[in-house]
# Entry
Amino acid sequence: MKPISELMMNADPSIRDEFIEPRNQRFTYSEVQRITNSFSNVIGKGGFGTVFSGLIGDTRAAVKMLSESSAQGCREFQSEVHLLMSVHHKNITSLVGYCDEGSHKGIIYEYMANGNLGMHLFGNYLIIF
Ligand SMILES: Nc1ncnc2c1ncn2[C@@H]1O[C@H](COP(=O)(O)OP(=O)(O)OP(=O)(O)O)[C@@H](O)[C@H]1O
# Structure
């Protein structure tokens, strides 16, 4: 797992300069569009919204966009960003950055290639509660 600073340093230099520290991990919506190649690759869906695959330089990222119909809403978006900004642990997905531009709200995470906890506990079975 690469630390955020290394991930940023390995990014394509043409976009890296725009992304690093001064703006404190905040991405514009057009940067998020570029990272996700205009939201072309969906990798999952959660209570918060849709999760897209993205690339920062040659490093893969997961971009979770808050859907307007999300029951979790804006406050949860803010608490998740604040929490991930302050908590760093090897078992918690790292925050790469966030986007908060009007109704365009999203969180950019380090991409986890090995699936989620549910998949490890239950394999690929479909579980219906
Ligand atoms: N960092 C990530 N790397 C790779 N895939 C991810 C990542 N984050 C989410 N995903 C994919 O997107 C799916 C939905 O994730 P998400 O966190 O939105 O849903 P969730 O676990 O149901 O959470 P919640 O309902 O609390 O928002 C996951 O099951 C996973 O397949």
About this structure: Residues 1-23 have pLDDT under 50 and may be disordered. Residues 73-86 form the longest helix (14 residues). The CA atoms of residues 49 and 69 lie 8 Å apart. Residues 4-122 form a domain with the Phosphorylase Kinase; domain 1 fold (CATH 3.30.200.20).
